[in-house]
Design brief:
The protein is an alpha/beta fold. The chain contains 8 helices and 10 strands. The strands form 2 sheets. Strands 1, 4, 5, 6, 7, 8, 9 and 10 form an 8-stranded mixed β-sheet that branches. A two-stranded antiparallel sheet has the order 2-3. Strand 7 and strand 8 form a beta hairpin. Helix 2 packs antiparallel against helix 4. The protein is globular.
Amino acid sequence: MSTMEWTGIILAGGLSSRMGFNKALLDWNGTSVLEQVIQAMAPAVQRIILSAGNNTAAYTTLPYDCVQDNYPGKGPLAGLHAALEASETDWNLICACDMPLLEPSFFKGMKWLAESGHEHHAIVPRLAGRVHPLAGAYHRRVLPELEQRLIDNRLKVTQWLEEIGCQYVDVDELESAAVHDVAIQLSNMNTPEEYKHIRNQ
């Protein structure tokens, strides 16, 4: 069992332009998509931070710390940076607010993988060649390089992961950490059609 303290970070500051409505607040079985994600993450962490961008007013009723971007308008890297700066733990679990099929096993598995090896500062899933940078584990040591990228307007997440020597984990490694149905868990939604499809799953 883990003795290390972890923080959970949920990236919920996007514009949701293709959805036409804040994705985090969409209905999910009588609650919201965001609260569904929080329920999955909460057993694995001691604290949850919502990286809210300009959406802080939308989350005032939730009992979690909200942070705004220090570099507004610079996408998910800016949201990750703001939340990691606010975190007080070395390791942090990250996920986007539009992944309601994530289960507690995913977060527990990512913790186990991070605590089993210490040479990497970021661990993210890679399925069939596709990297999922917004569902992973990040150490606060990545902050200096992350801030420099924001200053330089180099905002491509996958390039930054290469730069920091990210560890990519595939389906086999995740299943060995007791994470199953990985592809389904990592489903996200950007359009009303994708939202409807995910709800039907």
